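Discussion board: Methods & Data

I've been asked by a reviewer to show the raw model output for two of the constructs in my manuscript, not just the figures. I'm not sure how much to include, so I'm pasting the format here to get opinions. Each protein appears as its amino acid sequence followed by a line of discrete structure tokens. Is this the kind of thing reviewers expect to see in a supplement, or should I convert it first? Here is construct A:
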Amino acid sequence: MEKLIITCAISGAEVTKEDNSFVPYTPKEMAIEAYFACQAGASVIHLHVREDDGTPTQDVARFEETIKQIRKLCPDVIIQPSTGGAVGMSNDERLQPINLVPEMCTLDCGSVNFGNDEVFINTENDIIYFAEKIYEKNILPELECFGKMHVDQVLRLYKKGIIKDHLHFSFVLGMVGGQAAQERDFVFLKESIPEHATYSVAGIGRHEFPLAELAIKHGGHVRVGLEDNIYLEKGVKAKGNADLVQKVVKIANLYKREIATPKDARKILKIKE
């Protein structure tokens, strides 16, 4: 089985220090969290950035400073900026971090009703626009799919040559408005993608570790982090992102899955060094 790529989503755009005091806001805090996550076994850092008060931003200067701080402590890690941003941002605002030409970034592949009146909009034309801009800079997009219809959207655009190889999916399951996070849902998505594609699974909240175990068993990859889940176990808050990564490593050890280094991850994802 392939070595296991662990992606750590260290902050997200929504979770706050009131939820868990270890959620990082500043570039320095982000770098420290990234460092400990990498030491624990993460080879990819999924990156949102914040203002010092925790407000989400897609400001390219903030991304640049944060990436600089992370690189000081983690020179080899793959840094994957989010182009999701936050609900209500324009497409060009969301795309700002690709101007830094990272190795990877995210590409959201469909719209989601996040609850009440909050809708995360990604029309087909939005997805095409994002894909064109991302590929122009030779960045590998991680294809964020919140359900089967998003996978189907990717495959339609892949047939048209708009989305290109290498296909690396991220199944984000258990989110309000998205696909549920039972084993049947995971298997349905896993079996819906081409054999040559790779995938990672991000379970939201209590679904994080059950889905991580399924992905590990089936040869997939895993995303964990305070963006998705603030608890190590029921009633016990994680004392930083490294706690969550370490728990995944323990599960991987049970299944004898080796942990990928950043170099291994680049090879698996077909990222040129």
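Construct B, same format:
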Amino acid sequence: MRYVSTRGQAPVVDFADALLAGLARDGGLYVPESWPALAADEIRALSGVPYAEAAYRVTRPFVGDSIPDATYRAIIEDTYARFDHAATAPLVQLAPNHWLLELFHGPTIAFKDYAMQLLGNLFNHVLGERGERVTIVGATSGDTGSAAIEACKDRDAIDVFILYPHNRVSEVQRRQMTTVASANVHAFAVEGTFDDCQAMLKALFNDAAFRDDVRLTGVNSINWARILGQVVYYFVGAAALGAPDRKVSFAVPTGNFGNIYAGYVARRMGLPVSQLVLATNANDILSRTLATGTMKRGEVIPSLSPSMDIQVASNFERFLFDLLGRDGSRVAQQMAAFADTGELALAPGLWREATAMFTGYRLDDAGTIEEIRDSLARTGQVLDPHSAIGVAGGRAARADASVPMVSLATAHPAKFPDAVKQATGRIPELPPHMADIYSRKERFDVLKNDVAAVKAAIRARLAQKVQA
């Protein structure tokens, strides 16, 4: 399996090199040179097998000869051994033909664990084989940071730096990043939005001298392995509901387009996905794009669902690459124009193709509170604000009631206690391994919204480690 850049000017690489590079040298994102397909019998055989076995079968074609079969199987087994539910990603029925896929049974109780734990183990293996070390820098709107820290803490060959928007994540999300005492973990609160953090991350990657000097790599969903780890639960959920002999739809709380793009990848691999509902909060750039045919950047609006407070969805570029016939030069032109003007207009034919693939849905804070409250009364399920948007979208935007709809529950409600209390009057309990999080000592730096300041802080921390 070989990987190409969405902008067409970077070298073609294998899986291991794509993993360590994160972002391609030309500023593009790595994608497979071609899409592997699972036959109907292979999809059917996923029903009832352990999650780790399903993960191995779904993801193995993307790894190629970068990792031997037995070694990769051991990596997968180790990855999902830390999840606290026997099914790993269980389905819970909400209503006739409407299901909730619980993706919060990993160590940081959010869906990012399903890919990030795999990413951490892959880094550990490849770096160990090569005798190398890397500096990971990630940007987070809340959940990526804690999942990356949990996956990479205490690893000898990795230093991990996380940029998050100061005072724009929940207290639990912040403490999951700032209370980890590991010497290789560094949390930076940036005085800006997630989009600012993400822009700085891309600027770091595009500074070739800095990138090479610190051996920079990424854990955001710009890293292909992050997408790969998320493809699995689409297959697992669909197979449990009768795929491939039955079509299945998914509703996905969406910010950076990575999670729903994994559903698109599953469809390209042969999973019979009838509908992908792209559910946004008031930061609705993606649902507006589907409604109008033009992606138009706006101001980030702080919300009760902060992990979706995003106006620049980096993974849309991967979908655009396919829309434009895998023409990297056209993608580069479109992305440069979007960076300059804040607008990206899809030609009518491409717009029709996008809306055939995705259905947009938007829910603001008032609607989110109502959905959390009503869901508890209707189903007995307590939802976090992101999952509530997915459930509402799955119910309101579904095109065919005869097709099972799976709404993705992307976080445990205890990660967002203020929103849940506002809606229900209850404060959801944290799981036992996080029960003392409010009493743990925090450790973080507040940085200006400035690339030079971030570079200086990273260099200073790395120099301190060398001196120590």
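Answer (T.O., handling editor elsewhere):
This is acceptable in a supplement if you add a one-line summary per construct. For B, something like: The domain at 91-107+224-424 is CATH 3.40.50.1100 (Rossmann fold).
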